[in-house]
Design brief:
Blueprint lengths: L2 H10 L8 E3 L5 E3 L40 E16 L17 E8 L2 E12 L10 E5 L7 E2 L3 H4 L10 E2 L3 E6 L6 E8 L5 E3 L2 E7 L1 E2 L3 E13 L5
Parallel strand pairs: 3-13
Antiparallel strand pairs: 1-2, 3-14, 4-12, 5-10, 5-11, 5-14, 6-7, 6-12, 8-9, 9-10
Length: 233
């Protein structure tokens, strides 16, 4: 087998092994997110295949004392195709004039209410042949104009650097898919937070600046993990 084909297959097959989630080679998915509920809960699976799928599920349930500080667990999913990924060397002096070469900030989720941001998973279909993730992560708390957390690049947010196209596993940051050494094709990063979780009282918004080496388009799917007080949405 050619070396490049082996490299690609090795990257593609990595499974996630983290603090909150595991996926084994046999297909067993384990989620350790705590999901409090007061009275009842319902678990549903949606099969998007044209054929039946057999699923075996086990759920661990323990007693939980609900109080005024208890929050519900949430995930927010967003998918969009053909997102402009601007070239890194745009003229920053023309941003205010809405220069078409300037990057956009792509919003993962906007939350209203009180809660705690716990991280996200980002999957990219990179339609370019070079690195797509030069943009900065921006976390806005309670309607502020300038973000409380302003990153230094997509790769740094996910706890790595230098335009990564290799897989890695840590308890709170993982790269689980990278189809090509050039970063073209499908790529997946995830990062969850405990000591660096972000609390908010009224609202929260998380954006990623869309910047790349050469400029082009990507498709993106983002899942955001957060806890919210009753009524947060």
């Amino acid at each position: 087998m050619p070396a490049w084909r082996f490299y690609r297959r090795r990257l593609w097959r990595k499974k996630i092994k983290s603090w909150y989630r595991d996926l084994s080679d046999s297909g067993a998915l384990v989620s350790r997110w705590v999901m409090p509920y007061q009275k009842n809960a319902k678990i549903s699976f949606i099969n998007k295949n044209p054929f039946p799928v057999n699923i075996k599920t086990d759920v661990s349930v323990t007693a939980y004392k609900w109080d005024d500080a208890t929050m519900y667990f949430h995930t927010t999913y967003k998918y969009e195709e053909n997102i402009k990924d601007a070239k890194w060397d745009y003229d920053v002096t023309k941003v205010a004039a809405k220069d078409p070469a300037a990057p956009i900030d792509w919003n993962f989720a906007t939350i209203n209410g009180k809660g705690v941001y716990m991280g996200n998973t980002l999957s990219i279909n990179n339609r370019m042949n070079t690195w797509y993730g030069e943009g900065d992560a921006k976390a806005y708390v309670d309607g502020e104009k300038f973000p409380s957390e302003f990153g230094t690049g997509l790769e740094d947010y996910y706890n790595t650097s230098w335009a990564p196209v290799v897989l890695y596993q840590t308890p709170f940051a993982n790269a689980t898919r990278a189809d090509n050494p050039s970063s073209a094709g499908l790529n997946t990063f995830t990062r969850t937070r405990i000591l660096d979780a972000i609390p908010f009282s009224n609202s929260f918004s998380y954006d990623m600046e869309m910047l790349s080496w050469d400029g082009g388009v990507i498709d993106a799917a983002a899942t955001t993990y957060w806890y919210g007080m009753p009524g947060a949405n």
